[in-house]
């Protein structure tokens, strides 16, 4: 029982971690909270549902399409909602936040019109396959989700740490002007960051569809809000913090459902960030910035 | 003649416009010190639930219920405002957003008190209560040539109109006072304001709490005008809607949120076909406004322009008083 819940928590947490990574990448490079990330995630989930159930496409096709479409959404988001605000005189630092709230509202209601308000079940053929180790039941889906998440996180860490593009991205995150003086094409890096973050959101969307067997237009909002909570928990712009924060939140939510009141599940994330911000504003893994 | 003109439906819409104007102002006030608060919907919900529960269970007069709701929201505003002062910009926005979510989850789950997502019904209706108490003094709306229904909505409308006018008047006065100048200084540059001897902690908490008080007040009014509330009324969408009023109308002068609330509340009523796409349109409005005119439609510049135009016209025709504004 305990081990099964632990596995459930880790599955949920690894999805949260991927969503939070999308937030943290954008925040790290641009200093912007992308409120539309949850909705892009939700579109990824819908693309997965529609391709696998309505069009009977295999899962890998659904994955590829979700990645491509959400990446395109990221590109459009950057081009129409973020770029016009950059380097503009007299724009408050809150403008990009408000602008992405606009995108999120637009996308959520667009999906209401496109897909309907109801719940869409996700029928992955292997969803019910499970095997038992001792007395513990593990679903294959959970394993797949966990493996994909870990691969994604490792790939991202490697890419950020070792490749030239990753280094350019980190340099841009450190200081945009200096990076551009040193010959980094910051405009390209910014676009690329938003695209990668959005594609990760799309992947997380399909994974959530598989894990919970349901996709609704409202899921973007709740997931987006949790992603925000996680990056505050883990420290803004901190990649490792986002991963750890996601796992912590996933486990915490799973255990409150088991041992506490399931109704308050969605409130944990926010109670946690309110407490974190009061005690340790830089987040669990963040470094103190001197003002 | 009068009786035909007074359509309860129009009056109802007009009442919502006025409540939305108050809500728009509740975002504008913290924003005038540079704090983006997305907790207005949460404070509104606290005001609404406090007042509704007190009037339902303890049969308190509506006035006392509204005052209690406003106070609870205000106290909560101070409690949230003091710790969140350490937070800047986006952090504050997220925490206030999170606060709103926590409040909503609380309303949904505290079923013994709030009846969960079903919502509270049977809240004393402001207009009906006024009518009932006037009846005791022997007043009958028919003597004015009005039906009961018309009289009820008319009283609500005028009551709200007076309240809204008072709130606008108050904040316009405050804007040109010591407090208003402090707010403006903090918005421009916190460090500079502090070095000039402005107590930023005090003024930021003041602005945040004022926003909370106004939102709680609007929520309490909302509960007694609609007589039915549910947690969904105070969710994220409400917070965004209130934000859009201010962003669209303008966040520099108080006429911005007033205009924004007026326009955006009336638009779906006038253009019926739009109401289905209302939120999509809200999203587009936000994106376009931020890219093209981030300060909102009505800004200081526009007001100056209007003022100088009317002044010129006066000079030209030699009419009107010559008193300077």
TrEMBL record, chain A:
UniProt keyword terms in alphabetical order: Amino-acid transport, Cell inner membrane, Cell membrane, Membrane, Transmembrane, Transmembrane helix, Transport
Membrane topology, record value: Multi-pass membrane protein
Subcellular location: Cell membrane
A Gene Ontology cellular-component term: plasma membrane
Gene Ontology process terms (BP): D-alanine transmembrane transport; L-alanine transport; L-isoleucine import across plasma membrane
GO MF annotations, alphabetized: L-isoleucine transmembrane transporter activity; L-leucine transmembrane transporter activity; L-phenylalanine transmembrane transporter activity; L-valine transmembrane transporter activity
Transmembrane parts of this sequence: 12-33, 63-82, 94-116, 136-160, 189-212, 267-285
Cell membrane found in the keyword field: yes
Domain of life: Bacteria
Principal location: membrane
PANTHER family, per database record: BRANCHED-CHAIN AMINO ACID TRANSPORT SYSTEM PERMEASE PROTEIN LIVH (PTHR11795), HIGH-AFFINITY BRANCHED-CHAIN AMINO ACID TRANSPORT SYSTEM PERMEASE PROTEIN LIVH (PTHR11795:SF371)
Family label: Belongs to the binding-protein-dependent transport system permease family. LivHM subfamily.
Protein name in UniProt: ABC transporter permease
Organism for this UniProt entry: Mesobacillus campisalis
Source taxonomy: Bacteria, Bacillati, Bacillota, Bacilli, Bacillales
UniProtKB/TrEMBL annotation, chain B:
UniProt entry tagged with the keyword Transmembrane: yes
Gene Ontology annotations for the cellular component aspect, listed alphabetically: plasma membrane
Membrane-related topology note: Multi-pass membrane protein
Chief place where the protein resides: membrane
Pfam families: BPD_transp_2 (PF02653)
Protein localization: Cell membrane
Swiss-Prot/TrEMBL keywords: Cell membrane, Membrane, Transmembrane, Transmembrane helix
The protein, known as: Amino acid ABC transporter
Organism: Mesobacillus campisalis
């Amino acid at each position: 029982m305990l081990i099964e819940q632990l596995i459930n928590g880790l599955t949920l947490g690894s999805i949260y971690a991927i969503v939070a990574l999308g937030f943290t990448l954008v925040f790290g490079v641009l200093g912007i909270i992308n409120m539309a990330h949850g909705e892009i995630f939700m579109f990824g989930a819908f693309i997965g549902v529609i391709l696998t159930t309505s069009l009977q496409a295999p899962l890998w096709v659904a994955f590829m399409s979700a990645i491509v479409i959400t990446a395109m959404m990221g590109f459009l988001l950057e081009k129409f909602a973020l770029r016009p605000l950059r380097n503009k005189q007299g724009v408050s630092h809150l403008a990009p936040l408000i602008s992405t709230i606009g995108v999120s509202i637009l996308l959520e209601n667009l999906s209401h019109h496109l897909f309907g308000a109801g719940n869409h079940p996700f029928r992955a053929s292997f969803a019910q396959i499970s095997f038992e180790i001792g007395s513990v039941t593990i679903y294959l889906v959970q394993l797949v989700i966990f493996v994909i998440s870990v691969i994604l996180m490792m790939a991202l860490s490697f890419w950020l740490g070792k490749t030239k593009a990753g280094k350019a991205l980190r340099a841009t995150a450190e200081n945009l002007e200096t990076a551009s003086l040193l010959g980094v094409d910051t405009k390209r890096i910014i676009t690329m960051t938003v695209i990668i973050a959005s594609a990760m959101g799309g992947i997380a969307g399909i994974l959530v569809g598989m894990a919970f067997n349901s996709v609704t237009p409202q899921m973007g909002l709740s997931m987006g809000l949790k992603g925000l909570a996680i990056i505050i928990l883990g420290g803004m712009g901190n990649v490792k913090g986002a991963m750890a924060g996601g796992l912590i939140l996933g486990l915490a939510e799973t255990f409150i459902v088991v041992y506490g009141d399931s109704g308050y599940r969605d409130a944990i994330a926010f109670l946690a960030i309110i407490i974190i911000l009061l005690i340790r504003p830089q987040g669990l893994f963040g470094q103190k910035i001197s003002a | 003649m009068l009786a035909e003109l007074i359509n309860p439906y129009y009056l109802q819409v007009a009442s919502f416009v006025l409540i939305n104007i108050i809500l728009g102002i509740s975002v504008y006030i913290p924003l005038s010190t540079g704090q983006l608060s997305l907790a207005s919907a949460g404070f509104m919900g606290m005001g609404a639930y406090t007042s509704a529960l007190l009037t339902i269970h303890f049969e308190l007069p509506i006035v006392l219920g509204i005052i209690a709701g406003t106070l609870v929201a205000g106290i909560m505003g101070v409690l949230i405002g003091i710790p969140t002062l350490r937070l800047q910009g986006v952090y504050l926005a997220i925490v206030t957003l999170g606060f709103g979510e926590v409040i909503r989850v609380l309303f949904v789950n505290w079923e013994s008190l709030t009846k969960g997502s079903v919502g509270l019904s049977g809240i004393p209706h402001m207009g009906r209560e006024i009518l009932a108490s006037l009846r005791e003094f022997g007043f009958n709306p028919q003597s004015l040539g009005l039906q009961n229904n018309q009289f009820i909505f008319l009283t609500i409308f005028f009551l709200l109109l007076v309240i809204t006018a008072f709130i606008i008047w108050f904040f316009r006065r405050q804007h040109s006072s010591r407090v208003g100048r402090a707010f403006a200084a903090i918005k421009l540059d916190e460090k500079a304001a502090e070095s000039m001897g402005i107590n930023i902690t005090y003024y930021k908490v003041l602005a945040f709490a004022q926003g909370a008080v106004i939102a709680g007040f609007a929520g309490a009014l909302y509960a007694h005008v609609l007589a039915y509330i549910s947690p969904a009324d105070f969710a994220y969408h409400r917070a965004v809607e209130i934000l859009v009023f201010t962003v669209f109308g303008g966040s520099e002068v108080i006429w911005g949120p007033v205009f924004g609330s007026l326009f955006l509340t009336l638009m779906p009523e006038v253009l019926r076909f739009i109401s289905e796409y209302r939120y999509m349109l809200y999203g587009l409005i936000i994106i376009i406004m931020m890219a093209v005119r981030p300060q909102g439609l009505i800004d200081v510049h526009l007001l100056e322009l209007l003022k100088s135009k009317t002044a010129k016209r006066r000079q030209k025709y030699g009419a009107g008083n010559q008193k300077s504004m």
